[in-house]
Design brief:
The protein is an alpha/beta fold and 795 residues long. The protein is built from 29 helices and 32 strands. The strands form 8 sheets. The chain has a 10-stranded mixed beta sheet, with helices on both faces. Strand 6, helix 8 and strand 7 form a beta-alpha-beta unit. The longest helix is centred in the first third of the chain and has 24 residues.
């Protein structure tokens, strides 16, 4: 073809990136890659290996060691041996190591980018211009956190040995997201890359060794799903950080239940892309290109659900289909393509199957009529319009270059449709009216919201989801806490076994008047309520004297309490000043009845008058603490390297179940309930099982303190049985449970149904009188989700 003909046709010619260095690197490892353990590459103990393939051609790319139990044991042992020394290094020393890793990435950026494109199938423009620079940014950013760790996280210590499992869609970037904060804060790592895309992790291991990273600090074990399962189940690992599918995340939650492992899950999504009629339509169309056809749609936060306001829907779809036709699908190393290859034939088959299902359910199919490369796994840009909200393609994550489109009429309907999903990872809102955009952003159930933008990421801005998109944050200060644990909780002892519930001793009758009988009811929706089963239990003092009776709550009582809590959603939108005033009022009213509550504690538990008075005084002080924090626990403004800001907004989780500890019946109850309601949550609380009367007395304080109905609900009964009901309830968003180790295990396992956040003590005793261990930011952080709202501005 002549130059003149190119000018006539304005067609693209190939612009291939050289892969000579990458192919040479692969050739040097033609015999196969081993695991990277304790600073050296070693073969699998079993001698087993497997092949990895090039998505664009289907050809074998390399041979990888297949990790087994012995390999994981060796990696964990190396990490454990290195961890104490690594943590003892000064923050400055660790910062210098991370800085060296960042510089090493920059020096070898082109090699990493090419290997990533070959191994993953994504366009070289994406690996070169996004993945690798952002990976270097993560190491630079977290070098800074290492440098200032002693002052910024003075009351925390490293978690310890961390197992990390990353997906195949952003292999090198996901490595940086996880490895950088873990190492910066004094942890050591065993990383398991995806079996489809392990090569850049192994290349990074070479570079880390050359940069002088001490042996054992970073270990990489390659393998298939079973290797990851061995890592998850290993007893000597302190934390698991996983990015991948919701299905696997649910299994990990179940398998780590009761192990005491810290857990971060960043899972799937079905993110809404909301376009209002005053949006810049051409800008929004380009946003769709970035939202769903970036990385072939193989992005957990891909804006795959288009919600377009009716008035502009026809025009928007017309322009979007025209733009689809200009996209180019080709070989990953061609610098002029927009989309590369799907990761593997099995994923391509899944995409094709779901699209056919969507069409059979009534969607209209639009696909760009463009040439696809021969061989390999390729799929064209695809739009399904006229999709119903309940269609499988609107509810299931396709994880491919497929956008599904629906329309809406009002902002309220847009929010309703956007939140009509079990996921909650990300969202995009497009409107030239910033007030409308921010109002909608605040109402979306998502961990990240982009305004007039999409797929923006930075190391300084937390990323993570809600609901079945997982829990925990990666990046920024929020992400640092995922790799730390409070000093005040280090060395906690197992909770002493509570004595068996005291039995009432028979009392001989006489002719004096009996006391007027009083059975404490449940407290649901601001009202005292009899238990559904009409059963009660007698509460006896240590000497066997009956001190009262409480209702025996059951499944229906919990259901009613959850419904009441959901109906009190206005509490989450109340001003922080209003919540603070009410907490102060509760403290004031409790103070007026301090002697009564102290007497109750003594009567139930046998505590001395001095200890009972001290518990009541501490409870009043704790209410003051959370009244003080209610209007001061605020978000922040991140300044990522773009013209714009990201607002880090702490939001109430929603409806939270609370299983109170058996000890400290008043103080334990308030220490858990107060931070939750201070931050706007609504609570269903199960008081101390052996000593519940302090909590049932307390609801009369709530009734006289202007607490709206449904904000605090109290259901007495068996802690274990009620915990099971709350953990399995899909309308409970989080569950805090303090008690036996068995209780913690049960709560974590059953919470996997809707992947609710849990906060448990694994049977370890908390000194509720110790402010460092029992109040403040440690609890407030667990009472909120941080939503990051990106707001670009300027040119």
């Amino acid at each position: 073809m002549t130059v003149a003909k190119y000018f006539d046709e304005m067609s693209y010619g190939p612009a291939p990136e050289s892969d000579i260095e990458a192919r040479d690197w692969l050739a040097r490892h033609a015999s196969g890659f081993g695991h990277f353990i304790n600073g050296a590459f070693v073969p699998s103990v079993s001698g087993k290996s497997f092949d990895t393939f090039e998505p664009a051609t289907g050809k074998v790319l390399a041979k990888l060691a297949n990790g087994g139990a012995a390999d994981v044991d060796n990696a964990v042992a190396a990490a454990r041996k290195a961890q104490a020394s690594w943590a003892r290094l000064s923050g400055h020393a660790r910062a210098r190591h991370l800085y060296a890793l960042a510089r090493m990435i920059q020096r070898h950026a082109r090699l990493i980018a090419v290997v990533e494109a070959i191994d993953n199938g994504k366009p070289i423009r994406e690996t070169r211009d996004l993945d690798v620079p952002l990976a270097a940014r993560h190491f630079y950013h977290h070098a800074g956190w290492a440098q200032i760790q002693d002052t910024e996280f003075a009351d925390h210590v490293p978690v310890g040995v961390v197992g990390q499992i990353i997906p195949w869609n952003f292999p090198f970037l996901m490595l940086a997201w996880k490895v950088a904060p873990a190492l910066a804060l004094g942890n050591t790592v065993i990383l398991k890359p995806a079996e489809f895309t392990s090569l850049t992790a192994l290349l990074f291991a070479e570079l880390a060794s050359a940069a002088g990273l001490p042996p054992g600090v970073l270990n990489i074990v390659t393998g298939e799903g079973e290797t990851g399962a061995l890592l998850v189940g290993h007893e000597d690992i302190d934390k698991i950080a996983f990015t991948g599918s919701t299905e696997v995340g649910r299994v990990i939650r179940e398998r780590t239940a009761g192990s005491g492992k810290s857990l971060t899950l960043e899972l799937g999504g079905k993110s809404p892309f909301v376009v209002f009629d005053d949006a810049d339509i051409d800008g929004a169309v380009e946003g769709v290109v970035d939202a769903i056809w970036f990385n072939q749609g193989q992005v957990c936060c891909a804006g795959s659900r288009l919600l377009v306001q009716e008035g502009i829907a026809d025009l928007f779809h017309e322009r979007l289909k025209r733009r689809m036709q200009t996209l180019r699908v080709g070989q990953p190393l061609d610098k002029c393509i927009d989309m590369g290859a799907i990761i593997a034939p099995v994923q391509l088959t899944r995409i094709e199957t779901l699209v056919k299902k969507g069409v059979s359910e009534g969607a209209t199919l639009h696909q760009a009529k463009i040439d696809l490369p021969k061989g390999g796994s390729f799929y064209p840009p695809t739009l399904l319009s006229g999709v119903q909200p309940t269609s499988i393609v609107a509810t299931e994550e396709i994880f491919g270059p497929v956008a599904v489109s629906m329309t809406f009429r009002t902002p309220e309907e847009a929010v309703q449709l956007a939140n009509h999903t079990r996921y909650g990872l990300a969202a995009s809102v497009w409107s030239e009216t910033i007030g409308l955009a921010l109002n909608v952003a605040a109402k979306l159930a998502a961990g990240v919201v982009w305004v007039n933008a999409t797929n923006l990421f930075d190391a300084a801005v937390g990323f993570g989801g809600k609901r079945e998109s997982g829990f925990g944050r990666e990046g920024g200060r929020e992400g640092c806490y995922e790799y730390l644990k409070p000093k005040a909780w280090v060395g906690r002892k197992a909770r002493a076994a509570m004595p068996a519930l005291s039995q009432v001793k028979p009392v001989a009758g006489n002719f004096s008047l009996p006391t007027i009988d009083r059975t404490a009811k449940l407290f649901i929706g601001g009202k005292q309520a009899r238990p559904d089963g009409n059963y009660s239990r007698v509460i006896a003092s240590p000497k066997g004297k009956a001190v009262g009776e409480v209702g025996e709550g059951n499944r229906k009582d919990i259901r009613n309490a959850v419904v009441a809590a959901q109906a009190a959603s206005a509490w989450s939108n109340a001003t922080t000043h209003n919540r603070a005033q009410i907490l102060y009022y509760i403290a004031e009213n409790l103070n007026g009845r301090a002697d009564e509550f102290a007497s109750r504690i003594t009567g139930m538990t046998g505590a001395s008058a001095a200890n009972a008075n001290a518990e009541v005084d501490a409870a009043i002080s704790r209410l003051f603490t959370y009244a003080a924090w209610a209007d001061k626990y605020e978000g922040g403004i991140h300044q990522p390297p773009l013209r714009g800001v990201a607002l880090a907004m702490p939001e109430a989780i929603g409806v939270v179940g609370v299983i109170c500890p058996p000890e400290a019946p008043l103080l334990g109850f308030i220490s858990l309930v107060a931070p939750l309601i201070a931050t706007g949550n609504r609570v269903v609380a199960v008081p101390s099982e052996p000593f519940p009367l302090s909590a049932t007395d307390f609801y009369s304080v709530l009734e006289t303190s202007d607490v709206p109905a449904g904000v605090v609900n109290i259901v007495t009964g068996s802690a274990m049985e009620l915990a099971k009901i709350l953990a399995a309830h899909n309308d409970v968003d989080a569950l805090w449970a303090f008690g036996s180790a068995e209780l913690s295990t049960t709560v974590e396992k059953l919470s996997s149904g809707n992947l609710k956040r849990t906060f448990v003590d694994n049977g370890k005793a908390t000194d509720w009188m110790d402010r460092a261990a029992a109040e403040g930011a440690l609890y407030l952080r667990r009472a909120v989700d941080v939503k990051n709202i990106w707001i670009p501005y300027g040119e």
